[in-house]
Amino acid sequence: MFGSPDRVMVQRGLAEFRAGRPVMFSCASANFLIALPVDGLNVARLAAFKALCAPHAPRLVITARRAAALDVETAGPVMLPLPSHTGPDAIYSLVADADAEPIDAETVEPAGLSAIAAIQLAKLAQRLPALLVAEAQAASSALIDPRPVLVAAEAVAKFRQDSLQSLEIAGEAKVPLQGGIDTRFVVFRDAVGGGSVAVVVGKPDFSRPVPVRLHSACLTGDVFGSSRCDCGDQLRLALTRLKDEGGGLILYLEQEGRGLGLANKIRAYALQDCGLDTVDANTTLGFDDDERDYGVAARMLQMLGCERVLLMTNNPAKLNGLMAAGIEVSGRKGLQAPVNAHNRRYLTAKAMRAGHKLDHVMGALADAGDGPGAVPAE
Questions:
Q1: Which residues are catalytic?
Q2: Given phi > 0 = left and psi -120 to 50 = alpha, else beta, which region is 42?
Q3: What residues are paired with 197 via a beta bridge?
Q4: Model confidence over 270-286: pLDDT tens digits?
Q5: Which stretch of 12-16, 35-39, 133-137, 285-289 has the lowest confidence by average pLDDT?
Q6: Model confidence pLDDT, tens digit, residues 154-170
């Protein structure tokens, strides 16, 4: 009734990572592994983790993306040794700074299944995908108070997909918006507590392809009107267009910063301020350029009775994600938000490197005399 033991332990592991506490991972083919996110590490926590791991010395696990930023090409996550005197600031630099010193490829080794599961769990917790790890004995963990949560590595990979089945409608009500837009907000909740919202504009006809906007939450753009992105402009354009067309849906998804989370998005902004574009900023932090999963959007549409959509997006990945999840996509309509001095570089990177259909951005570059390979300054 309350979920499988494996799933419950993954949920508890998520809570531990979010609180900055270590989690133990089990795997049939390897020893137990205890892991602590680097995100939030300080002198006291580092000392406590070293004591917890004794006599083993902690190692650092990073993703292939972060390894590439440190001049190491690898097919998957890797572990690297840490000198005993390495402090929290030096560890953070290794996992997040754009100008960190390259590492010796000879010192790294492939991460095992438990370490990979720890990275996946850190991403789900919206922590940086980098952890301190060490082998541990199950018996010795019983002496720790409180005892670390034990998570099966294989259960983490299944967790996100299984979470879709726990999605439920938590509440709904009419919400009139400025500009005379009549909407109904339908709030969804999963077993972990995540909340996405379907904004039903007008009275869409579900017997025909429904105009739909998949919109990832953007606190800076949607709420505060940030000029660094086009998110808020696209949201307002979509609302107006759906009103004019007689109805449709906006799925407001809990996927801030292309799935990185707000804190990591702001870290990526700081890297952009140092000269990186939006793609390189995300990968420098160890993430994929886009960490979003549109399975939750497909599940929301199915629960609303919407099986065919006309997608309002510039991003072909959204079409592919919905179709892979069983939603029929009848077509696409673009949303051309204004280009300004602050978002021009961001939009150019999305068009030229992420494949977004932003013809108006490319046209603006041509009118300004920038070549097709140019990346304009902010």
A1: 290, 292
A2: beta
A3: 187, 252
A4: 999 999 999 999 999 99
A5: 133-137
A6: 999 888 778 888 899 99
Are the CB atoms for 212 and 333 separated by under 8 Å? Answer: no
Q: Which CATH number fits domain 163-368: 3.30.200.20, 3.40.50.1820, 3.30.413.10, 3.40.50.10990?
A: 3.40.50.10990
Longest dimension (CA), the chain: 68
Q: DSSP secondary structure string, 239-272?
A: HHHHHHTTEEEEEEES-HHHHT-HHHHHHHHHHH
Tokens of residue 359, six digits: 């013809």
Query: Cα–Cα distance between 175 and 183 in angstroms, integer?
Result: 5
**CATH dotted code for 5-161:** 3.90.870.10
Domains of the chain, by residue range, sit at 5-161, 163-368
305: left (phi over 0), alpha (psi -120 to 50) or beta: left
The side-by-side arrangement of strands in the sheet containing 149-152 is 109-110, 78-81, 59-62, 130-136, 30-37, 23-27, 149-152
Residues with Cβ within 8 Å of 373's Cβ and at least 6 positions away in sequence, in order, are 352
Q: Which helix (H) or strand (E) holds 208?
A: none
pLDDT of residue 29: 76
DSSP code of residue 84: T
Distance CA 49, CA 35 (A): 9
Query: Any residues with CB less than 8 A from the CB of 223 and at least 6 apart, and which?
Result: 232
Q: Which residues make Cβ contacts (< 8 Å) with residue 25, sequence separation at least 6? A: 32, 33, 34, 35, 114, 115, 117, 118, 150, 151, 152, 153
CB half-sphere exposure, 52, CA atoms < 13 A: 28
Average pLDDT, the chain: 89
